[in-house]
Specification:
By secondary structure, this protein is of the alpha/beta class. Among the domains are: about 100 residues, no CATH class; about 150 residues, 3 Solenoid (UDP N-Acetylglucosamine Acyltransferase, domain 1). The chain is about 30% helix and about 20% strand. It is built from seven helices and 20 strands. The strands form two sheets. Strands 1, 2, 4, 6, 8, 9, 11, 12, 14, 15, 17 and 18 form a twelve-stranded parallel β-sheet that branches. A hairpin with a 4-residue loop joins strand 19 and strand 20. Helix 1 packs across helix 3. The chain is extended and about 100 Å long. It starts with 7 loop residues before the first helix and ends with a helix.
Amino acid sequence: MCPACHHTQAASHASRLLLLNSHAHLQASALTPPLALTTHPHTVIQACCLVKEWHTKEGSQKQGIGTQTVPSLRARMSASVVSALGAAARAAGRAFENAGKLLEVTPYVEHLAPSTKVLSHAGKSPAIHETVFVAPSASIIGHVQVGKGSSVWYGATLRGDVHSITVGEQTTIGDRAIVHVAKLRGDAPTKIGSRVNIGARAVIHACTLEDESTVGAGAQVLDKAVVKTHAALAPGAVLTPGKTVPSGQLWAGVPAKFVRELTAEEIANIKREAVASFELATVHKAETTKDYLQVMEDEAAWKDKQQRSPDYWPRLKGDAIRDPAEIPGFGVPGRIFNHPLTTPLPEGSDGRPQGGEREK
């Protein structure tokens, strides 16, 4: 109960006003004098009197007492309640967010970043032939040269930051393979020849792989090691620094050692695998370079194939459904044109009289 006006209902209203802290709303109202709500103990008494005054004015209006129009305090208080609820909801949301951060072991923020599969380093950019397939998730960094028809598959990394990397033609660098260089105790670039097969998760570090050699999945070729032409390193093997696998031999183990001589069929398979990988990479390159319009056309063609009866004419594709009068990027011109604007038809082929007929 309020000690000033002994109004129990007003006291309950006053407590709500204190919790809502609606200082700005009360100053904007028509009540006089304007009251500033603070945490002072007398604020409860002032708020009670304010609410009692509101009840008095409302009763006077109902009884027809007074001709001056008083703004609707009920609407103003409703707006205050809505604003206070919004603020409370935002505060609760921040509290939940902070609680979630406390539960995270490693805070994670998702960023939308463009593809960074080709990057420059120290002023040097990769030189990649236009026929090379570089998977969207692969990375080629720094002083790297990749020859015609080669492929860098998904998750693979070629990092030429402290020295150069050279890759020949139709060479395959498998998924998540790592090719790096070194510059300790002298120069140590990485040189990879043509039609070389590098398996998934292999590590090629500051070494040399000659033409038509093969390195199995998960194998490691370390600093200044050499794999000669028509030589093979088995999956999981580790060729230690400075070692050389002679031509025609298979090495395996940790550290890698000579196992046996390769057969003529196995040597021929090295080149066949390189060519097969090149053909597969061509398909992947075509698919990964499509824009959204080509993807939509492929989806429409697939749906048409599923639904079209074999008794119907096949669906026309590409240039077959393009109007010869279409101007690239602008569509087909209006009826006033009866031939393509980019390639005018010969005189007389559009139905107009030729020079001799005009003179007549």
